């Protein structure tokens, strides 16, 4: 069954070319076209397409606002953004608005075809250029002290933390590591002080978050 698609772009010649490519591929059928976000919202309600291919910079209503309204009102309709905008702001905002994918307009049709299949299948599609941009931005936002605190743990303290998070008690850890229970207790206290976490539950959450516990697998 072919995916029903609504094309949204304020350039008629671009919509015409895209419609031709989509229908020639027999991957989808274009059920409507819109030249701005407000028209897209109206047609999404009337046509209930499986997928909206959405531009961002348009008159009347921009693509971010249109995406937000469409995904809120018609959760069965997914949105794939196709835009010239490379700035991370647009990528982040439209994904927050509910879009399921983001492609640049200089993309080859073969990749757009893959994106259509992926998004129509209920998954998210981001090309390498976009995912790399988001990962770099994410890494820049990680507080420096988060990494430093983690590195402050010794190899043995990380081992103890993992065993604690895996549900082992003091005696079990001591037996497994071949040390006294008192040594394990001291190491656990040192871990808590370094991480500023003061309960087994908090230590477990931390270990899972950092991939130090089998619970994370």
Explained architecture:
This protein has 217 residues and is an alpha/beta fold. The protein has 2 domains: 3-140, Rossmann fold (3-Layer(aba) Sandwich); 144-212, Arc Repressor Mutant, subunit A, CATH 1.10.10.10. It is 57% helix and 12% strand. The protein is built from 11 helices and 5 strands; from the N terminus they run βαβαβαβαβααααααα. The protein has a 5-stranded parallel sheet with strand order 2-1-3-4-5, sandwiched between helices. Helix 4 links the parallel strand 4 and strand 5 (101-104). It starts with a strand and ends in an 8-residue tail after the last helix. The model has no long low-confidence stretch (mean pLDDT 85).
In short:
The protein is built from eleven helices and five strands, in the order E-H-E-H-E-H-E-H-E-H-H-H-H-H-H-H.
Please outline the helices and strands.
Blueprint: E1 3-8, H1 12-25, E2 28-34, H2 37-47, E3 51-54, H3 63-73, E4 78-83, H4 88-96, E5 101-104, H5 109-120, H6 128-141, H7 144-151, H8 155-165, H9 170-177, H10 181-195, H11 200-209
Parallel strand pairs: 1-2, 1-3, 3-4, 4-5
Helix pairs in contact: 2-3, 3-4, 8-10, 8-11, 9-10
CATH class placement of the largest domain: Alpha Beta
CATH superfamily of the largest domain: Response regulator
> What portion of residues belong to β-strands?
5-15%
> Which range best describes the helical content: under 10%, 10-25%, 25-40%, 40-55%, 55-70% or over 70%?
55-70%
Q: How many structurally independent domains? A: 2
The second-level CATH architecture of the largest domain is: 3-Layer(aba) Sandwich
